[in-house]
Specification:
With about 600 residues, this protein is α+β, with helices and mostly antiparallel strands. Helices cover about 20% and strands about 40% of the residues. The chain contains seven helices and 41 strands. The chain has a six-stranded antiparallel sheet, with no helix packed on it. The two termini are about 55 Å apart. About 30% of the residues are buried.
């Protein structure tokens, strides 16, 4: 167990620990053993990683800056306010970061909320001036996020007798019994002037002879009249204040208008002179414009490749983990899978109004991957199966078993389905749905698969394996340097790899050499997509970046998502992105 006195940010009065602030329930002169408003008693050790390096207290609303370090949101705000330019200078590596680029560190916030604490009514002051468990108090130990809700109704809470402040504080569970024996119960007509108090039975006997009891009807009537008059007086006072405020505002506005009118009059005279000059210039310019128009007709149009968000559509109740586009006859469909265990089919006939045609259910776990060819859809799940769906009838027509763990990657090529799992891949025949080969050798999850030039590329932790498609033998292993490989794609003669360490590795397909490492994201790169002469990357930092394969420079950054971008799909000139914010966006 550990006793923690939480700190406060400069200039604020709110406790730092997840907004939790224990309330002092009793009078300051009472002897009830209640902790101070900023004291918490944790039942286990508190990791130093949960302390903000700026104010040395536990995090509240932790955010991750572009430098990669995490601080409290209010610490960052206070530091930016002190500079006055909205720029945050990291105290650990002195890098400058924009406050607007901060990302909520939800994982760290959840860790703090899960810390277990004792109810404040189960503590007492110890000999060393700190609080220790009270064996006669509340025995509850619960997560920090539930503390306030529990203490609001805790039966061990200290309460003051409603009849008299002379009574000592009592536990909430004992208050009902105390009221029966309290000798300070007042006469019900105390507000009218009766000063009698005593036991409940004495009060009941007193009321029968109380002078005020005989005129209680008149007292009630008078009280109501006074309440009405007070309400009317309050209302009139507010109306008077409103009128005074409006009058002051009107006077100020009239003064401003008067000054503005004088200024406009002077400006109007200058404008009249300017217009006369402009007319002369306009006549000369008109001739030049006709000449330019004829010249511009011979200039080829400029292809504006800047992407804009064309729409957002939603329906999933969990993060979107995979996207795929397919055409069935005359229909163009987008397929999405999610951690909500479902697959949704979206009609792409009208990109301005994309609607969900069907929701497919059947998996008993998270659907990590989807791929489609024609009217056949394949989905891989944490339930260790691959399901085959008919996109005409929207029915599951087959379930493929064989994996012993989550199916986290799928790809179709030349009549075969390739599936990635923990430390291996499987190859399936699309006609018989039988497993024809198992490719082993990876040291971790196979999360990314792609094919190019007769070779299969598969990514795992710090490695990319190259397989001969004819023999299914591994011909080469590329040693990566940035942790797990989450996405693979081929553009021209280069293999792209999205990694855990925020970078995109560029490999030469022929020489198997790492030729470049693209940086810019501040979170893991989870998805890649290729479109003609550019490619896209989706990241945990909630952004999508557009890259040039000629200069290897970032051309544009798309920032409309509110959480991690986990999936990308390219269809002609459009890009679709799926995010942990439960939405899909279309860009074009």
């Amino acid at each position: 167990a550990s006793y923690v006195r939480t700190m406060e940010l400069p200039g604020t009065t709110a406790a730092v620990v997840a907004g939790a602030r224990l309330k002092q329930q009793c009078d300051s002169s009472a002897t009830a053993p209640t902790p101070q408003g900023q004291d918490l008693y944790f039942t286990g050790a508190v990791s130093p990683a949960l302390y903000c390096p700026m104010h040395r207290g536990l995090f509240i609303s932790p955010v991750m800056m572009r430098c990669g370090h995490t601080f409290c949101q209010e610490c960052v705000g206070a530091a930016c306010a002190a500079r006055g330019d909205g720029v945050f200078v990291c105290p650990l590596d002195h890098k400058e970061c924009k406050r607007d680029n901060a990302i909520n560190n939800l994982a760290l916030a959840v860790q703090i909320e899960e810390l277990r604490v004792k109810c404040e009514y189960g503590l007492k002051m110890g000999a060393q001036g700190v609080f220790v468990p009270d064996l006669e108090g509340c025995p509850e130990e619960l997560p920090l996020r539930d503390l306030q809700q529990h203490q609001d109704t805790c039966q061990y809470a200290w309460e003051q007798c409603p009849y008299s402040s002379r009574c000592p504080p009592l536990r909430r569970m004992d208050m009902a019994k105390h009221k029966l024996v309290c000798g300070h119960m007042p006469c019900p007509h105390r507000t009218a002037g009766c000063e009698f108090e005593g036991l409940k039975s004495e009060v009941e006997e007193h009321v029968a002879h109380c002078t005020y009891e005989k005129i209680k009807g008149y007292i009630a009537f008078t009280k109501n009249e006074i309440d009405v008059l007070r309400k009317q007086l309050h209302q009139k006072t507010e109306e008077t204040e409103d009128l005074r405020t409006n009058l002051d505002a009107a006077n100020a506005k009239l003064e401003r208008l008067s000054h503005k009118l004088k200024s406009k009059s002077r400006h109007l005279r200058r404008v009249e002179a300017s217009v006369r000059n402009m007319n002369n210039v306009l006549e000369a310019t008109t001739v030049s414009l006709h000449e330019m128009k004829s010249q511009l007709q011979n200039v080829p149009p400029v292809d504006d490749q800047q992407l804009n968000c064309r729409g957002t559509f939603s329906g999933h109740t969990g993060p979107i983990l995979a996207l795929a586009v397919t055409e069935t006859g005359t229909e163009k469909l987008l397929v999405s899978s999610s951690s909500d265990h479902t697959i949704r089919i979206w009609d792409l006939a009208d990109l301005k109004s994309i609607k969900c045609k069907q929701m497919l259910k059947g998996h008993e776990g998270i659907v990590h991957s989807v791929t489609a060819i024609g009217n056949k859809l394949f989905s891989g799940s944490s339930d260790k199966t691959i399901k085959v769906w008919n996109l005409d009838s929207y029915e599951c027509v087959h379930t493929m078993f064989g994996h012993d763990n989550t199916v986290c990657a799928l790809m179709i090529f030349m009549g075969q389905l390739f599936s990635g799992c923990y430390q291996h891949m499987k190859v399936w025949d699309l006609e018989t749905y039988e497993c024809v080969a198992t490719l082993s050798g990876h040291n971790h999850w196979v999360r990314a698969i792609t094919v190019s030039g007769g070779y299969l590329y598969s990514g795992s932790y710090n490695s990319i394996k190259i397989w001969d498609m004819a023999t299914f033998t591994c011909t080469h292993t590329l040693v990566a340097h940035d942790g797990s490989i989450y996405a693979l794609a081929v553009i021209g003669k280069h293999l792209l790899a999205g990694t855990y360490e925020n970078a995109i590795e560029i490999w030469d397909i022929d020489s198997h050499e790492l030729v470049r490492r693209l940086e810019g994201h501040i979170g893991a790169v989870y998805a890649l997509g290729v479109q003609d002469n550019r490619f896209f990357s989706g990241s945990y930092d909630s952004t999508i970046k557009v890259w040039s394969p000629e200069t290897w420079k970032c051309l544009q950054t798309l920032v409309r998502h509110q959480s991690s971008v986990d999936a990308l799909a390219v269809h002609h000139s459009y890009l679709f992105s799926g995010s942990a914010d439960h939405s899909i966006k279309v860009w074009g």
